[in-house]
Design goal:
The chain is α/β, with parallel strands linked by helices and 263 residues long. The protein contains eleven helices and ten strands. The strands form two sheets. The chain has a six-stranded mixed beta sheet, with helices on both faces. The protein has a four-stranded mixed beta sheet with strand order 4-6-8-9. The longest helix is centred in the middle third of the chain and has 19 residues, at 79-97.
Length: 263
Amino acid sequence: MADPKLLYEIRGRTAWITLNRPDDLNCIDGDLGREIALAVEAAEADKDVRALVFTGAGRAFCAGYDLKYVLDIVSRQDPEEIRRFMAGALALSTRIVGCEKPVIAAVNGIAAAGGLELILSCDLAIAAEGVRIADAHANYGLLPGAGGSALLPRRIGPVRAKYLLYSGEFVAAETLRDWGLFNAVVPADKLLGEVEQLAAKITAKSPLVIRRMKHLVDDGLDSSLAVALRAETKAWEAHALAEDFMEGLTAFSEKREPDYKGR
C-alpha cells in the first residue's frame, strides 16, 4: 500500500500538516492539492485547533507543482481544463491565506515555485539553516499561478521580488530572512522545536484576538492608513464586549494565567 501523500497530526492546539512525497520533493499533484485543502478545512473547523503548521517530509519543503502533472494537463491544450487547473491552484493558496487561524511554515528543505507560494500563503515562516529557496517558474517557461506575483512583492518588496521572479535563482534562507520572507532561520535539528514553541506561544493567546488581528493586518495592507485606523477602532469597540477581553484583564488583575475561550 502506498504511503499517504499528506500527514495530519494534532499536537496540543496545533494541526501539523506534512507534505509526504519525499521521493518527489513533496511536489503537489492533483491528489495532494485536494488533501491540503481538506486538511486546512479540518483544522479550521476543529475548535480545539488554534494554529496550523506546514512542513515537508524528507529533504524538501515543497518543490512546487509536479511538472509532469502540469505537462499532462497543458499538453491537451484544452482551455477549460487549464482554467480548472489554475482555478484550483489559486483557490488552494487563497484558502490558506484566508484561514481564520494563524498558519506557520516550518521550512525544512528546498522550496521552489509553488513551494515558495505555499510559504507566502502562511502568516509566519521559520527556515532551517542551509535551506535554499527559488521562485523558479522562469526556469521552466512558466508563470506564477498560485499567487506568487502578488504575494511575493507584498512580503519582500517589488525590486527583490522581481529579482527572484526573473532570475529563477536559489537564494539562501539567511538572505531571505533579511529580506523579510522568514521570521527566523535556525539550526536544522532545532527547527521543529522552535516552531512548536512559537505555535505554543500563539495558541496560548485568545484565538479571537489572533483572528481579529490577522484580519486587521491583512485588510489594512490594501487600505489607506486612515481607513485602516478606523477599522482598528471599530474592531476594538466590538472586541471590548468579548468574553476574552474581560478574561484577559481579569486574569491580569488576579495575577493568574488567562483561560481564553475564543468568545
